[in-house]
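Risk register update: the risk that structure generation would not scale has been downgraded. Supporting records follow, first protein first.
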Amino acid sequence: MPVPRRKRNRSSLPRTRRTLTRRALLLPVVSLAAFTTTAPPAAAETPPMPAVRAYDQGKPLSSYEPVLRHCARAGCSFHIQPDGNREYTTAVRPVGNAILNCTNADITTRRTVTLETSSTDNIGGGISESSRTEDGISAVTQISSNGNNVVLGATAAFQQAYQATWSHQWVSRHTEVTEYTITVKPHDMVVFNAANAMTRTKGRLGDDRGAMYADEVTVDSPSTTNPSIVQAQSFAAHDRCANVRSQGGAARGVTADPDGLLLIAPPPSGTKPSSWLTLTPERRRVFDS
């Protein structure tokens, strides 16, 4: 975890218009190792969001909404809590259809997996959403007044603190496009699963006088340090193949793929795979916004 650094230049403010950047990472082609029969890692649990505590002149407030409205009118700053930041991965979940090999020979196929990750927070989207209004007043944008004074709403204040602390811009949305080559054995079904890499940032949102503020404000956003994890799980599918053969081309929910595989819905949650493999992408492209 990087050590937070004191902001040096308070005159540099974050841009409020999100831009889309593209980063491409080309990796050498890596031949996939054999599937392992050991149990896959236990599913991760997304850490629960803490409850926000809001105050006005030291008196507890029943909601954080007055703090957001105050930030929109008078401006706020965000102070990142050094011990409240962490990297984690979400629970593993299926991505797309399963691929089924009902032939008597191995089929090698190339697949593209697209993962989209967005930000969430515990103040009703006051930071993570790109636009939000409370009583007709924007609670998240940067507002310029009198040509000199700049009022920072919740999102802009968070962006500025994040960049000053970690020396790079906050990423609110993140898309990973990865490509894999995999061999499906006869009468096997393979399901791609993914766990999104996330970063949690926690701190205080409030005015510079400390009169009105909210503690434990937490933002979960796409990780800029770690890639997401993609696994392939293999299931014995003799029964499914027998069902497809018995119904011929009328099998419900089955789509033929040009490489000879069949696309089918993944098995129910909790079905135990016969083997699994954490995949290394041959190509990875990243789009941030």
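Supporting record for the second protein:
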Amino acid sequence: MMAGRMIVVAVRRSGHAVGAITMAAGATPAVADVAGAAVPYRLAPGTPVFDVPAADLAVAEVEFDERVFQDVKRARMLFPGGSEQSASLAFVKAGTVEVEVDPEEDTLVIKAPGSPGEDVPFWALIQPQENGPSSVVTGEIPKGGVQSEPVAHGLTKGDTYSALVLVAGLTAHQEEITVP
């Protein structure tokens, strides 16, 4: 790695950075070398810690930018054509994201502000507040829409979950959801 460069660990689907490191010159490490099985991620003090699975992550080497360390929830990697080698760093705007659960259909919908000019991918990590396995839900907010199509969630009625919702182009969002 050249001087003035850094490694950013990001959720592949949305591009949201979940961590960054600086290191001595050498080859860009693999996700497993940096993340192990998962990267712990917390949006703010006092909020839940989410273990983002390594299988959903990518690493990319980019020019050093201290803003990644100062406000990681706004940092986003752009992976044109899915290539980690040609990734670039961007910073996203704040926006209100909402999770709506339909208990009758066992689905959820992700709502975001505005009407995007293209399909916008999202990635959500949902973990129970009590013991139990986490689940990842993905989908898209279609071009011109304000919400995703309903996505199956597999959550248990009556339970409460913490959700980390990453919508491409918006800051990371954490929400507590209860399945009615």
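The helical segments are 31-35, 67-70. On this basis the risk owner (M.S.) recommends closing the item.
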